[in-house]
Amino acid sequence: MANVGIVIVSHSPKVAEGASEMVRQMVGDTVPVAHTGGNLDGGLGTSVEGIMAAIERAWSPAGVAILVDLGGAETNSEMAVEMLPENRRGKVVVCNAPIVEGAVIAAAESSGGSSLETVKRTAEELSP
Amino acid sequence: MEPALHTSERAESDLTLRIVRAAAEAVIGHTDELTALDQAIGDGDHGINMKRGLEAVLADLPQLRGKPLGEMLKAIGMKLVMKVGGASGPLYGTLALELGKHMPASPSRGDLAAAFAAAIEAVKARGKSDLAQKTMLDVLAPVQAKLAEGADLCAIKAEALRAAEATRPIQALRGRASFLGERSIGHVDPGARSAALFVAAICDTLEG
Predict the structure, then answer these.
(1) Each residue of B189-207: pLDDT tens digit?
(2) What is the pTM of this model?
(3) Furthest C-alpha separation in chain A
C-alpha cells in the first residue's frame, strides 16, 4: 500500500524548498514529497497552477496532505483541490498545522503507512 | 440579410467586452494605490497581483468575443484564479466563476441581483469570511443590496465608493491584516477598494 503524499506550499520558494529538505531527511524516498512556492513572476506568493502541479508530483493512491504557511497559500490550495478531477478531489486535504513542523510530522506519520485522515490529524495536533 | 437579433447580440457582447476592459483598466490604473493600501495592513502585493491577473484577462479578450455572458464570466474567473496569485485570485476568481454559473444570456436586473447574491455567498465560503471583517465583502454586499432594490447606476457607484471608505475604522478579522489586530484600524481595506474600483468602472461604462 502506497504512503500518503506530502505537498508543501509556502509564499517563499526558499521556505518551501527548505521544509521539503527537512522532510526528506526524515523519511527519505518512502513518502512522495513535493513543494511549491512563489508567484508566477518568481516573487513571494503562491499560485494555483503551481499547487496543482505539486499535487500531481506527490500523487499517491493513499491521498495527499497539503501543508501551507499563510492565508493566501491556504485559499489557493483549497481552490487547487477543487479544480482537481472529481476522483482525486476527495483524496487531497489541506492541514491546519504549522508548515515546517506539520510537514515533518505528517511525513513521519505517512512513512509508517497511516491513512490520510491519521496523517492530517497528527499534523493538526501541533496547532494550538 | 442578417436577422436583427444577431446584430443586437453582437452589440451586447461588445458592451460586455467594453465593461470588462474598463473594469480591468480601472484597477490596473490604481496598482500603486492598491499596493500602498496593502503595504499598510497586508503584504503589499494586492496591486501587482491584480495587475498580473487583469492583464491576462485583457490579453484574452479577443477569445471572449461572442461567448455567452455566463461562459465569458467563467473564463474570466478561471484566468483570475490561475494568474492573480495571493488570496485575491481565488476570491475574485470565485466571484466571476459563480456569477457565470448563475447568469442567463440576457439577464434582467433581478437575474443580476440573484446571481450576484449567489456569488457573494461563494466568496464568503472561499474566504471563510463574513461582513464587517474588513474585506471585499463589505463592498460587494451593499452593492448587491442597492442593485436588488432598484437603485440607479449613479447610486450604486456612490455606494461602492462609500462602502470601501467605510472599511477604514473596521478591525481586520481575516487575511494578513488580521495579524495586526487593532493596528489594522484606520486604513481602507485594499480588497474593498479594488472591488469599489471595479463597480465604479462598470457603472461608468454602462452610463456612458
Answers:
(1) 999 999 999 999 999 999 9
(2) 0.92
(3) 39
